[in-house]
Amino acid sequence: MKTSSKIYSSIVFAILFAPILVLLVFSFNESKSLSVFSGFSLKWYQELLKDRNTLEAVRNTLILAASATVISTVMGTAAAVGINKLRSKWSKAVMNTVTDIPMTNPDIITGISLMLMFVFVGRLFGASTSLSFWTMLIAHITFCLPYVILQILPKLRQMDKSLPEAAMDLGCTPMGAFFKVELPEILPGIITGAIMAFTLSLDDFVISYFTSGNGFETLPIRIYGMTKKTVTPKMYALATIIFFVTLGLLLISNLVDEKDEAK
Amino acid sequence: MDKIIELKNISKAFDGETVLDNISLDIHDNEFITLLGPSGCGKTTTLRIIGGFVYPDQGDVIFMGERINDVPPHKRNVNTVFQKYALFPHLNVFENVAFPLRERKLPKKEIKEKVNKMLDMVMLSGFAHRRVTSLSGGQQQRVAIARALVNEPKVLLLDEPLGALDLKLRKDMQQELKKIQKSTGITFIFVTHDQEEALSMSDTIVVMSEGKIQQIGTPQDIYNEPVNAFVADFIGESNIVDGVMLADYKVRFGGQVFDCLDTGFAPNEPVDVVIRPEDVDIVKPEPGVLQGTVTSVTFMGVHNEAIVDIDGFKWMIQTTDPVEEGAHIGISLEPDAIHIMKKSKYSGMFGDYSSFSNELDELSNPGGEEEE
Amino acid sequence: MRTANRRHPQNGYRMALAPYSIWSALFVVVPLAFIAYYAFTDNQFAFTTENITRFFTATSNIVQEDGSSVEVRTYLLIFMRSVKLAVISTIICLLLGYPMAYIMSRAKERTQKTMVTLIMIPMWMNFLIRTYAWMTILQDTGILNGFLSALGLGTVHIIGTEAAVIIGMVYDYFPYMVLPIYSILAKLDGRLLEAARDLGCGSISVLRRVIIPLSMPGVISGITMVLIPSISTFYISQKLGNGKFFLIGDAIEGQYVANNLHFAAAIAFILMLILLVCMAAVKYVTARYVYGGDEE
User: Fold this and answer.
1) Which of A83, B228, C133, C242 could form a disulfide bond with B344, CB atoms 3.0-4.6 angstroms apart?
2) pLDDT (tens digit, 9 = 90+) per residue, C90-101?
3) CATH node for B3-224
4) What ipTM is given for this predicted complex?
């Protein structure tokens, strides 16, 4: 790499990581200040562990992300297999467009649109508030699905199309051929898709914000609430923990990819 | 020999495009039969119909006397060697070959015996625990054959299995396949677009074009007595000229009358006349023989290949005699060098060497990819 | 004449696709229709165009720096500001991101992977927190100013200005610009560059006539991926702009919080239309001036 390139990319990375570094450092700050570091302490982490509402939000977030991941991965895998087999140009175009919508639409539109429908349907049934864990789950599954599908489709396209045929030729039922031959082939895609779905769900604020209700609070929503008031380094401690969890997941998914490529 | 598979009036169209047009074909037990034709002729579709991967729009597929149109692939007693082998990348060599046996839930000991026997047969005994992706093309090919044969099918379908191998390896595998077929006594249905491969391996050749069977016969029949201009051109090199059948044993072309061996045409019926390049003798340009000018000579090793312009039609002539470009020569033809064919829709499309038609054909058809 | 075949594998694949098709219809397509429905109805769900008209006509007074007040079209102003800030952020992202993507694509393979991971890591920090961290950095008494004054450079006032909002947007969406461009540049066939040199192009010329045109698909998706979220963002301007620069996303959120769902839907509806137009424009411009090339 040329020196100028090295300098440029170093500056870019320095700026990209500056806020993260700030968070990390100040989460260990002894005082309440977010700009003056007065000494190392773990007290904000301890306080975090005592904060019942935050812990509940963590639990909620994990339940939501896990459910959304399982459902969107199963449905998305089936959908990818089906889309891959579509023959007519028209139906392919329709499926591609529909799959693109949640990804290209701004989050705020996705959130508002789902919220409007939930409120409307809730009213039909006379419910005063229809937003709950369930509406959030539906929303999360909806925005995770395209990412799962788009991770699996390329794996299906790369796969030798005669593999499932060979399995049937050798005595497998079509179902058996799928589970014994196709699934192992596309598994890396399914795993990366699932990890993506999980992290997206953990991280989502905008869509959750519009579709949550009934006291069901996830971490990003709790953080939003916290940043409206004065913020203490406790939130930074929380952010640091979330950051390392998501980072860990990202690295695992990279490893899966690399292992797959090494084949 | 018993009929093992009968195709009766099979038709198939994909998206409104006819791929097979009323095909009927009998395949006998213990036979090495080759479906031969250019890409898009319907040979792979025919194979896939027999394998159960394509459902015919019309017609019946009969296997040992039973109609099997509705029998799914996994219940058919036929196995396939796929074009790019379709080995399962997540399984090693042993497990690939064991795959159909495990599906049948055979006891472990029996599986081991059968797989090892198969690997012995294809000379891969030491490779049982290798990853299939680490094997060479020829080795993968052998695994695919072993896997397809381990179930002892009645019929083995081979879809251009040698297409991905280089020339030398291909020749070896041709002999080996023939040997395996002889020793196992299994019926082989082999699909290829390579006419030399077809001629050297087959008991029976089925020449196909545009979804129709053009000719069925032994390699000798097909080469010596092509039924129309398409077959004559596709199998080997041919000069195909317009002629008129004056009477039995008399044909006129190029302004001359020749003796021939063919009968059964109407008087003065227009016909296609096929002359193989190696059957032409070069003589002095005397009256009474066809005369022309040599426009190019290519040294081919064993023989010279000369293009000779006779009244504007370019003939290809293969001769071991020295010929020179620009020379004025005569050619003579023995009666058994002249093959007469009825006019067909292929008349006038082939047989003139005025362009590099063969190479251009290949250029416009890279890879010989078949229709699905 | 084809006999219906129960076991035909194609049926199985249709079954596999069915749940997703139904799900998408119910939770992607129908909700979008609800935006239009709410946008054109009043609280009693009777048809009205009032929500849309309100967007274009509602006015408010803003106090200028000299103390006088002017009447402005509230939502048109918000809207124009959103577009302006989003476009500026997108351009900055492109100007900073393209060289970055290019540097990454020319690095050794091992380095490339590391750099991609490094670019992606900040994306996995929740954007609320990222934005908040910038707030503490840019504050008048924040880390940046502490740093500057320690160096004896005085202080700068950034927080609460449009510049701060732009910094936030550029920071948040920078990876979305770099990654698509990088993925195209990384796949670029090295032989093309050699061919261009062989045909007499200098370094600049290769960049201008071969690399940039070929990377256009990546540039377009980068622009799309930055422009869309930055035009519709909320929160960034609330935190970094001290709430002084309401953007269209903030307007939608505000109406939602105030439970004016019909007007929120109307704003969202207009935003959707504008984005469609923007995307069509981006596609048209690139098709005409990049691939055509002969108008130059």
Assistant:
1) B228
2) 999 999 999 999
3) 3.40.50.300
4) 0.86
